[in-house]
Design brief:
Helix content: 25-40%
Number of strands: 9
Strand order of the largest sheet: 4-5-6-7-8-9
Shape: globular
Distance between the termini: 33 Å
Structural class: alpha+beta
Largest sheet: 6 strands, antiparallel, barrel
Number of domains: 2
Strand content: 15-25%
Radius of gyration: 20 Å
Length: 265
């Protein structure tokens, strides 16, 4: 078997880095769709019903805490989408054992979140509960076990986008994609960061938007805050995102990327 040329591995890595940088910096003016009226919300999604009852803990806010459910924000955000797309709740069906609930959640979490939703008859049934909020409150341990490990979400190659510069034009393109997805009735998972400030390197899920001044206001579910929605604003004049109300984050400029919307991204 022929051996690859010396240094070829480093060349591939360099090319990938260049491609990522180009993708991060690409974008043209005028890609944000016209937003009018009261806005759009994802059909069938209700914050108080269709979100997890428990939170992703912030390790820095719980020094010395043992057995924290921390650094699971990517797992929970992806899981929220998977439950909406691939699960069905049947409150009238008999409850099952802890182990059976774990197995059913594992089946739900095995679906790729960019797939089309399953029809009702093909969905994984969660018996004995009427919603994700109710189910995750009563069966927290089973839900956490079924959603699985955080490891691969923490080392996913797209997370490294936060280390690259991004132009205002590219951020405008991302805003346009978010609006288009929400108009299409789909939740949008976002990677949000304010690096190099060591405060926000996180994921949220946008489920609604409305026109707000010279831009749009995104309503988001934050894995760190099960109590109330957060807000992220895109200013069309400045062509940048702003953390208007993001849990445990000072209001300010942030960079936003889409997450888990294709096999590569």
């Amino acid at each position: 078997m022929a051996r690859p040329p010396v240094g070829s591995g480093r060349t591939v890595v360099l090319l990938l880095a260049i491609l990522l940088a180009v993708a991060a910096c690409a974008g043209a003016r005028g890609s944000l769709p016209v937003v009018a009226g009261t806005g759009v919300a994802t059909p069938g999604f209700v914050f108080a019903r269709d979100t997890f009852a428990f939170r992703n803990e912030i390790r820095a806010r719980n020094p010395g805490g043992a057995n924290l459910y921390a650094n699971y924000c990517f797992v929970l955000a992806r899981g929220l989408r998977q439950f909406l797309l691939f699960a069905r709740f049947d409150p009238d069906a008999p409850k099952v054992s802890h182990d059976e609930y774990v197995e059913r959640v594992r089946h739900i979490a095995a679906f790729s979140p960019w797939r089309d939703p399953l029809p009702p008859e093909a969905r994984i049934v969660i018996p004995g509960y009427g919603s994700l909020r109710e189910f995750s409150r009563a069966q927290e341990a089973a839900v956490k076990a079924g959603l699985g490990s955080r490891f691969w979400t923490l080392v996913h190659w797209t997370n490294w986008r936060v280390a690259f510069p991004v132009t205002r034009g590219r951020q405008e393109s991302v805003a346009g994609e978010i609006v288009s997805e929400l108009r299409g009735g789909r939740l949008v998972q976002l990677l949000v960061t304010n690096l190099p400030k060591v405060e926000l390197n996180h994921t949220v899920v946008a489920y609604a938007y409305r026109a707000a001044g010279p831009g749009i206001e995104l309503t988001v579910w934050d894995p760190n805050d099960p109590a109330e929605p957060g807000l992220i604003t895109f200013d069309d004049r400045e062509r940048r995102f702003w953390a208007t109300r993001v849990y445990d984050t000072e209001p300010g400029a942030i960079r936003v990327f889409r997450m888990y919307y294709s096999p590569l991204l």
